[in-house]
Amino acid sequence: MEVINTSGRRKTAVARVYLKPGNGQIIVNKKDYKEYFPTGVLQYIANQPFEITKNEGKYDVMVNLNGGGIKGQAEAMRLAVSKALIAIDAEHRPPLKAKGLLRRDPRMVERKKPGQPKARKKFQFSKR
Q1: Which domains does the chain show, CATH number per domain?
Q2: What is the rounded CA–CA span in Å between residue 85 and residue 66?
Q3: The pTM of the whole model exceeds 0.85
Q4: H-helix or E-strand containing 45?
Q5: What is the pLDDT of residue 2?
Q6: Which among 4, 72, 77, 126 has most CB atoms closer than 10 A?
Q7: Is residue 59 exposed (0-12), middle (13-18) or buried (19+ Cβ within 10 Å)?
Q8: 49: nearest Cα among 28, 67, 24
Q9: Cα separations (Å) of 113 from 76, 81, 123?
Q10: Tens of pLDDT along 41-66?
């Protein structure tokens, strides 16, 4: 089997994932994923597709992440890894879909409007 290449996005974060058979090594932007994602929650998000499909330690993952914040990057990586696992074996689709890991979260930051300090906040109204 050759290298599987997929991408995932969340907010403004983009993850490009290269998945190949190996011993479970996950490299994110040339660092170990435990170093790149310092908290347990983010590490759990990064590992979630492997846990759901019972594939921990079977594949080496190389990830290029850019844009967004660390949480958006972790979720973008989760989507890309889920897509890659389905490209390897279509039987992984039902459990991943049931957990909602195949849906790209469409929520984005609302743009700032002219004449306002933020997207929805208004300047203080003065009657006189």
Answers
A1: 4-98 (3.30.230.10)
A2: 22
A3: yes
A4: helix 40-52
A5: 87
A6: 77
A7: buried
A8: 24
A9: 28, 36, 12
A10: 999 999 999 999 999 989 999 999 99
